[in-house]
Design brief:
single chain; alpha/beta; globular; 14 strands; 2 domains; 46% helix; eight-stranded mixed beta sheet; six-stranded parallel beta sheet; Rossmann fold; 18 helices; 430 residues
Length: 430
């Protein structure tokens, strides 16, 4: 309960009393009141045969395994992230994916087909959830529960119940386990308990690490058993195809004001280096354009939005964000170097590559791996590296390198690493 209280306090700090209150009412409705939807439960019971027929048709499809993806992340959210990308890629690799949504973001009462082998499911609809799992018990194919290390609603006992029913667990270790990532005063106990469980159960739990630091942490704690390395990636084709999209006059006025445009999109949080951005803006040479979610109250506290040459343009949906990024000269990741960012595989890094834009970042370990990424150790060097990046913006050799590294880090490749590992173990059981 104390985790939920501190989360509420942080939301109120970030969004204000009115905005925060509205968000929390919506969250409470999506995660708690929806479970008490007696009319919905009655409707499922009344039309049970219809829903069973639909489920049986789905489960008769052609696939090699089932992944039940449980998390409170949602599908239709502004920050289209690893969960959606990996789920879609798994489905293309002959895997049936049942992806949990939340009514906080998605209008899914029971189940909706997103693409072949990928279905969005409202597991909060308890009566419908019972039907799904009763039918899954009849399926004689490998079944997996996939969760994130940052998921804080499910307990370790919930994982044990899945294992009892014949599921293996895919535990994605995606971030340093800290209160800042969780958005709470302390790390929620459920997160710590599930991590401990994942470490100790080498028979039933596969751990996917997304950064070297996380991989080495698991290697030290439990060895290489069922350990897979898979960083974030990019939907390469999506960033090669642009239709018509009309940019706002406000944005066009900014990017055409005579200064070099540098940009960032993503979370604005405590690990963002606000002082670095302020230093860049003060040089007077650059427009600093920021898109993204205020993850906590750090952006407002920094007063960065009031700085000359800094433009915060809010959140843009994934499907249109690329049109704004395409017009920027240099794309950046100005993060502090700490335990969180040392453990981060920045998804945006690979999207920047696919956009064929010069990239400048601080010296995060996961950024140092790629030849196309220009890194800087301090504020002064960052300014120099921005100049170098601007000179490279039309260099054909550099653009070719960006393209090559983007292709090497497609979501298809990232998901295939895990699926190939599962295949090898599944074949041993046949």
């Amino acid at each position: 309960m104390k985790d939920k209280i501190t989360k509420l306090i942080n939301v109120l700090k970030k969004d204000g009393f009115i905005g925060g209150s509205k968000k929390m009412v919506k969250y409470f409705s999506a995660n708690y009141l929806s479970k008490l939807n007696f009319l919905g439960a009655w409707e499922i019971k009344k039309n049970k045969d219809k829903y069973l027929k639909e489920l049986k048709t789905i489960l008769k499809g052609k696939y090699d395994r089932v992944i039940v993806w449980r998390n409170n992340f949602g599908w239709d959210v502004p920050l289209y992230q690893r969960p959606q990308h990996m789920a879609a890629a798994f489905a293309s690799l002959n895997t049936l994916v049942l992806y949990e949504v939340t009514t906080f973001t998605d209008k899914v009462k029971t189940i909706v087909k997103q693409k072949e082998n990928l279905y969005l499911v409202n597991f909060n609809n308890k009566e419908y959830s019972k039907l799904i799992f009763s039918e899954l018990e009849k399926i004689n194919k490998p079944k997996y529960l996939e969760i994130y290390s940052t998921e804080w609603l499910m307990s370790a006992n919930d994982l044990k119940e899945y294992i009892k029913k014949g599921y293996k667990i895919i535990y994605e270790y995606i971030d340093e386990l800290t209160a800042d990532i969780a958005g709470t005063k302390e790390i929620p106990q459920n997160i710590l308990d599930k991590f401990e469980f994942a470490i100790n159960d080498k028979e039933n739990v596969y751990i996917v690490a997304t950064a070297d630091k996380l991989y080495n942490d698991i290697l030290e704690k439990r060895g290489q058993t069922k350990l897979i390395f898979s960083t974030n990636g990019v939907d390469y084709d999506f960033y090669q195809n642009f239709g018509e999209y009309k940019l706002e006059k406000e944005y066009l006025d900014i990017i055409n004001n005579g200064k070099i445009n540098i940009g960032y999109y993503g979370a604005l949080a405590k690990w963002f280096d606000y002082d670095l951005v302020r230093f860049i803006a003060k040089s007077g040479k650059y427009n600093v354009i920021l898109f993204g979610v205020k993850y906590d109250d750090s952006f407002d506290n920094s007063q960065l939005a009031s700085c000359e040459n800094v433009y915060y343009l809010g959140v843009k949906e994934y499907k249109i964000l690329k049109y704004y990024a395409k017009e920027i000269d240099i794309l950046t990741i100005p993060f502090l170097i700490n335990d969180i960012t040392k453990s981060t595989s920045p998804l945006k890094l690979f999207e920047y590559m696919a956009l064929h834009k010069p990239i400048v970042t601080t010296k995060m370990p996961e950024c140092l791996k790629y030849k196309s990424v220009i890194t800087a150790k301090n504020k002064e060097e960052f300014l120099k590296k921005l100049e170098m990046a601007y000179e490279n913006r039309d260099d054909k050799k550099y653009i070719k390198l960006l393209d090559k590294e983007a292709k090497e880090n497609s979501w298809t490749e990232k998901s295939k690493v895990l699926i190939d590992y599962l295949k090898s173990e599944e074949s041993e059981l046949l």
